[in-house]
Amino acid sequence: MTTSVPEATDAGRPPFSLDEARAVLNEVLAASQAERTLAVLEARDESLTRFANNEIHQNVTSRGHRLTVQAVVGRRSGTASTERLDAGGLRQVADRALALARLSPEDKGLPEPAPPPDPVRASAVEAGGTFVPATAACTPEARAAAVAPLMAAAAGRGLNAAGALTTGSSALAVANTLGRFAYHPDSHSHFTCTVRSSDSSGWVNRHRRDWRALEVESLGEVALGKAERSRDPGEVPPGRYTVVLEPAAVADLVGFLAWLGLGAQSEQEGRSFLSGRMGERITGAGVTLMDDAFDPRSFGRPFDHEGTPRRRMTLIEDGIARAVVHDRRTALAAGTESTGHASPPPAVEGPIPYDLVLTPGDRSLDELIASTGRGILVTRLWYNRVVDAKRTLMTGMTRDGTFLIENGRLTRGLKNLRFNESVLGVLERAEAMGREAEPTVFDYVETCVVASALKVRDFHFTGVTRF
Q1: Quick one: DSSP state of residue 119?
Q2: Alpha-carbon distances of 6 from 13, 68, 263, 277, 323, rounded to whole Å
Q3: Pairing state of beta strands 430-433 and 160-176?
Q4: SS3 221
Q5: Structural Rg of the chain based on CA atoms
Q6: Is 166:9 a contact under the CB 8 Å cutoff?
């Protein structure tokens, strides 16, 4: 028997169906001679319309899939991957994983595979509409029509717009030889745009499952307005300022916490900022941070790469460190259960909270600005780097819309500033939170942060740029 995922995704459907995924995974599990086997099938279809200099210059579509097999023999395991889904390819990847397992050293911390519960079958209805056919079916013509008014407006105002509108769909399926099977399709869309003048810029960024909810034209107007308003930027000296961080800037900071210590592996190894601090206050009293794959604003899946159902986890509650997330390995070491946060095999980075949600406040962005006597509005941060992981100390720069606030009003654009800040320190000094939360997806690490704006006192800027 030969099974395969379709060469191209039909309009309005995921890269592969539940039945197609089950057929591929069943065949590779049957081909494996290991004592225990885990198989993970992932696929992603994505189309992109890119524009620059107020003109569309690229329309591309990419389709890809990968099958990863983990074979276990005694206390040894090996992992192999392939993009071949024909019968020969499935046999070969199963054999490679088994050969690697036999050559590997014994692993005393190796957990047992997830046992067989009722099948985790997440359809679009069961998962709350995570797959939107209209997004998967979006055409180059539709994307071009969506960005055309923005480009025309930029040209008419002497500005230069560049960015991309991306639409696509993906699917994940997991199975093991104990009978575990889980499947989930979803869709995604992303619009990003930078508008420039000779000495200023404005930027917008939005992620939605339904591409029609991106509101490209009105969102683009925000970028146009920031570029116009920040012309002829002024300069302020380095120092500590009250700042209003827009949602994207907050997500840039909070997202690093996922990798700096909210997973159990780093906490158990003593590398986490949470190591030895569970139950202690680590941020301001009003800060609650959750991992919630089921938040409708996020992009989470209902199970992890081991097929374990995801749990909603309260990681920081009113400023108190409460929990880290687990996969089956770290749960075994801790004498607890997996929370459904395993990363793809071989999972060397350990469990990760992929869908962070920072509980919002009750202020609008305009109200946060109006309540600030003197401060700085930050649209986003970039070139961010970790200085000290255990102290959550970061450095980076503002970009594409930095404004001086005086007497509750934006008075002028500012040249960008470099910052050095502890993420936990920022959350400790947060004075007020916005109520309009936005998801920001970091594709390079496949994490999503849902956050609203923050007003923070004594934010530390260490230098001023020339632009």
Answers
A1: -
A2: 11, 18, 36, 50, 42
A3: unpaired
A4: helix
A5: 24
A6: no
List, for residues 376-395, the tens digit of each pLDDT value. Answer: 999 999 999 999 999 999 99
> Distance (Å, rounded) from C-alpha 371 to C-alpha 366?
9
Cα end-to-end span (Å), the chain: 62
Q: Which are the contacts of 119, defined by CB distance < 8 A and separation ≥ 6?
A: 181, 182
Residue of 171, 66, 68, 182 whose CA lies nearest to 114: 182
Which of 119, 135, 275 minimizes the C-alpha distance to 191?
A: 135
Residue for token digits 């961010």? 384
Domain ranges of the chain: 18-212, 233-467
SS3 state at 148:
helix
Tokens of 177: 């030889």
Alpha-carbon distance of 249 to 454, in angstroms, equals: 9
Closest CA to 382 of 242, 140, 194: 194
- Domain 18-212, architecture per CATH: 2-Layer Sandwich (3.30)
CA distances from 246 to 145, 250, 253, 283, 450 (A): 28, 6, 11, 19, 12
Could you tell me if 162 and 287 are in contact, meaning their C-beta atoms sit under 8 angstroms apart?
A: no
Helices (H), 157-246: 216-229
Element (H, E) at 268: helix 264-268
**Which of 36, 129, 131, 115 has the alpha carbon at shortest distance from 76?**
36
Residues 6+ apart with CB under 8 A from 220: 147, 149, 150, 153, 154, 161, 193, 195, 204
Other beta carbons within 10 Å of 271: 15
Which two tokens mark 126?
């069961």
Burial of 12 (0-12, 13-18, 19+ CB in 10 A): middle
CB neighbours of 335 closer than 8 A, spacing ≥ 6? none
Q: What is the tens place of the pLDDT at every residue in 150-196?
A: 999 999 999 999 999 999 999 999 999 999 999 999 999 999 999 99
Q: Tell me the pLDDT tens digit for each residue of 76-109.
A: 999 999 999 999 999 999 999 999 999 999 999 9
d(CA 460, CA 200): 23
